[in-house]
Amino acid sequence: MKTWPGKVATALWTLAAGLWAYWGAAEYFFEAYGVPDAPGWAYLVPAAALWLLGLVALAWPRAGGTLLALAGLAFTLWWWGLMIARGLFGWEQALATAPVSLALVLVGLLWWLEGRVRGPRPRTRFLPLALPPAVVLGAALFYLPYVSGRTPASPGPWRVTTAAGELEWAPAGPGWNLRLGPRFPSWAELAAYGREPRGLGEKPGPYDPAAEGLCAYLDASGTRLLDEPAHVWRLPTRAEVVASLVRGGALAGCRYPGGEQATCERIPNKEGPLWDPAAPAVYYWTAETTAEGDEAWYVPYSGGLRYGGRIASQPLTWGNPRHGYRCVRRLR
C-alpha cells in the first residue's frame, strides 16, 4: 500500500479476517462437528466472503473498498435486524459486533482513499491473505483431538449415580430432543405442553414446567406421551446436568458451584451416554429460570470450560437446533 489509509485498512482487514476465520472454525468444531445435517462449510462463509473482498481490495483498492463498505453496511443492518427479531437487540450487543461488522465500512472507505493514488504497488501487499487459512488450520489442530473419537449415544435410558444424586435420563423419544418438523421447541413450548390445546406450540406465560411441561406427560418408560400428566419425569436442574457431564463415556467429575462454569476433574465432551454426538443440540435446557422469570438456564456439553460455551440463560421463547433437552427423574 502507498498511503497511510491503505496501510491502516490492510491492518484492520487482517484483524477482522482473522477474527471471522477463528469464529467460523471454532463454532463449527463446537457446534457442528459430527452432525450429519450441519454443513461445515456454512460456518466459514463469512470468513471466505471477507477473504475474497480483501483479495479484490488489495488488487484494486478503489473497487474493492467500495464493495467492502457496502458489504459491511448490509451485514450490519442484517445482523441488527436479526437480533431485533429475536428480542435480543441492545446497545451492548450492537457495539460488541461493531469491530467485525460496522468496522468493515470504515475499512472499505480507507481502501477507497488508497485507490485514488495511482501507480504500481508491491506484491507483498497480498501476504495478509495467508492469515485466515492459517487461523482455520490452527483451530483445526486445537479442536480435532478434543472432538474426535466421541462415544456414541445409546438409545436407552441412562441410570447414573452423580454428585447431584442417583438419576435416570430419558431414552430416545419424546423425552429427548423432540423435533417439530424443521424446527426445535423453545423452553416455553416445553414448559406449556400440557396446557390446552395440548401439544408443542406458542402459548403465553406464566409457565409451570413441573405441572404442565412435556416431561410431566411422559409415561414411566419415557418412550411415549400420555393424555394426562404422570409426573414421573421433569426437566433437570443446572446441578443435575453438570453432575452428569461426561468424557470418554464416563462421568467427568463435574460439580456446579454457580456462575458460568462448572468445576470438573476432566473437561467434559459431547458424547454418550448423556449427549448424542450426531444431534445438533450442544446445550440442554434446565427447569430453572432467572430471577426476573423471562429467561431459562441452559448448560453446554463443555460445562462452560476450555473449548467453548457457557452456562447461561436465553429468553423463554428461544428455540433453535443448538438448544435441546432431556428429561430426567431422581431415583434417590
UniProtKB/TrEMBL annotation:
Keyword entries, A-Z: Membrane, Transmembrane, Transmembrane helix
Record field: transmembrane: 40-60, 67-89, 95-114, 126-146
Tree of life domain: Bacteria
Protein name per Swiss-Prot or TrEMBL: DUF1566 domain-containing protein
Source species: Oceanithermus desulfurans
